[in-house]
Amino acid sequence: MPRGRLIVFEGVDGAGTTTQAARLHDRLQKKEIPAYRTAQPSERPVGKLIREVLGGRQIENPGFATMSLLFAADRQDQQDADILPRLYRGEHVICDRYVHSSVIYQSVTANDPAKRPWIKEINKHIIAPDITIYLRIDANSAEKRRAVRGGEPEIFDQKLFQRRLIDVYDSIGHIFPEHRIVTVDATQTIDEIESQVWQAVGPFIDPPKK
Ligand code: TYD
Fold first, then answer.
1. On the chain, which terminus has fewer CB atoms closer than 10 Å, C or N?
2. How far is the CA of 28 from the centre of ligand 1 (A)?
3. CA-closest candidate to residue 125, choices 77, 173, 87, 177
4. Does residue 74 have its Cβ closer than 6 Å to ligand 1?
5. Among 40, 2, 8, residue whose Cα is nearest residue 131
6. Residues 89-148: pLDDT tens digits?
């Protein structure tokens, strides 16, 4: 049985990764193509701890290294327990955020691009996605979307931080030259974005029949 594909959505907070991951998942389900949608941080034990930390309820002022290690541990555990078994069963896995988030968010928190190689190193047993969709949005539009979404503020919500993140996300292709990354303009309507995502992803998972 052919291995399933791993499809990742990336972007700053408010870019719409969760919405587009859900849209892609629905589309595959309608076509009766086996697919599973997940996210990082995960719903597994380390992921739950991370959400507590992000909400400011555990570990006061964690540094970039602590956060990098937590995210890497969560990712490794989720890969071993959940993602790999599904891929090998032939299911496609759609993941909302992945190693790119660690390398970008945690190096921006450290304010030091020289930390990126170490963050990659601690994620070195993580498999590369078959395709990564980078949903690109400007800081103002992303802030408006986050405001509409509401919810408790998280430690990464400040606008200045989000601007610095966007600068680094815009070099995602240089930071991960080994990955296949497609940039989609995330200021478009949800339907337009969905259709561009499908143009990029469709050929991987639903090849035209000869
Ligand atoms: P996410 O679940 O996408 O946000 P939300 O709570 O709005 O659904 O991710 C939580 C935050 O964690 C988000 O600001 C990005 C950040 N993050 C990292 O800093 N490093 C990582 O490795 C990952 C996966 C997420």
1. C
2. 25
3. 77
4. no
5. 8
6. 999 999 999 999 999 999 999 999 999 999 999 999 999 999 999 999 999 999 888 888
Q: Is the pLDDT of residue 209 over 70?
A: no
CA of 85 to the centre of ligand 1 (A): 24
**6-205: CATH architecture:** 3-Layer(aba) Sandwich (3.40)
Average pLDDT over residues 7-12: 98
Phi, psi for residue 144 in degrees, rounded to 5: -60, -45
Look up the pTM and report it.
0.95
Q: Within 10 A of 7 (CB to CB), how many other CB atoms are there?
A: 26
Distance between Cα 41 and ligand 1 center (Å): 6
Taking the domains of the chain in order of start, what are their residue ranges? 6-205
